[in-house]
Amino acid sequence: MKLEKYIDHTLLKADATLDAIEKLCKEAAEYRFASVCINPTYVTKANELLKDSDVKVCTVIGFPLGANVTDVKIYEAKNALAEGATELDYVLNISDVKNGEFDRVQTEMAAFVGLKDDHPGLVIKVILETCYLTDLEIEKVCEIAKNTKIDFVKTSTGFGSGGATEEAVALMKAAAGSEVEVKASGGVRTKGDAEKYIQLGATRIGTSNGVGIISLTDQTSGSGY
Fold first, then answer.
1. What's the rounded Cα separation, in Å, for the pair 154 and 224?
2. Which H or E element spans position 125?
3. What's the pLDDT at 225?
4. Which of 84, 107, 159, 221 is the most exposed place for a label (fewest CB within 10 A)?
5. Catalytic-residue membership of 154
6. Of 140, 154, 173, 191, which one is the catalytic site residue?
7. Residue of 56, 73, 125, 183 marked active site
8. Which residues pair with 56 in a beta bridge?
9. Distance CA 26, CA 203 (A)
């Protein structure tokens, strides 16, 4: 297992500095992580820093609440794509889920999938924020993800009341099946954490402690996004 290829090396703190982003990108290139996951304001810089590597530039959309209207999220997504992002992690409208407005959830998800028409190779991940959802709601969103052919369902923003759990990852994998991949994020701090979620079916791990995770010892210096 090439554990590094599962990792989205992440820095999404509000006070992230340019120096910190440069360090993140340098580490990602050195350790050959799957991607860096950064706020939209740093997409251009990350794209410049990683242009000679195989590390993808991932950014977040509608982050962290998911409460913007779909048109605003799509505008944000298109801007990020124009600046060089190749993966988008967007937060679904959690209120729509809680209100049972699943047609709205599907319409928004389909709008994101539609971006792939003009951007071959684009990867779209929808963040469920599972700490706020019931099992039935998680299953329903995963079914919609299968119907719309989105690439990934993702557990958490890392800014909610809880992060990834074994129960949520297993449920998402069972509901999404083989058609949709699963990303575990939020509280993933150690190599053991990462391997646990991979065994449950996750194919991406979002974490601020990527370097610690692939080292021989389980460091816990990251915030665990």
1. 15
2. strand 123-127
3. 59
4. 221
5. yes
6. 154
7. 183
8. 35
9. 23
Angle value at C-alpha 67, between 57 and 109, nearest 5 degrees: 60
**CATH for 3-214, options being 3.30.200.20, 1.10.10.10, 3.50.30.10, 3.20.20.70:** 3.20.20.70
Residue pointed to by tokens 């509608």: 62
Q: Is the CB of residue 64 less than 8 Å from the CB of residue 92?
A: no
Kindly name the residue from 8, 56, 73, 89 that is annotated as catalytic. 89
Q: How far, CA to CA in Å, does 217 sit from each of 62, 106, 220?
A: 35, 42, 9
Question: Structure pTM?
Answer: 0.94
Catalytic residue status for 218: no
Q: pLDDT tens-digit profile of 49-79?
A: 999 999 999 999 999 999 999 999 999 999 9
- Supply the mean pLDDT for the chain: 95
* Cα 66 to Cα 70, 113, 201, distances in angstroms: 9, 17, 25
Is 89 catalytic? The answer is yes
Q: What confidence tier does 219 reach under pLDDT thresholds 50, 70, 90?
A: very low
pLDDT of residue 212 exceeding 80, the answer is yes
List the structure tokens of 8. 């989205």
In this predicted structure, what is the pLDDT of residue 30? 97
Give ∠ CA 95-107-147 in degrees, rounded to 5.
Answer: 105
Report the alpha-carbon distance of residue 223 to residue 208 in Å, rounded.
Answer: 6
* Residue 90 per-residue DSSP state: E
CA distances from 142 to 25, 70, 110, 194, 218 (A): 31, 19, 13, 21, 32
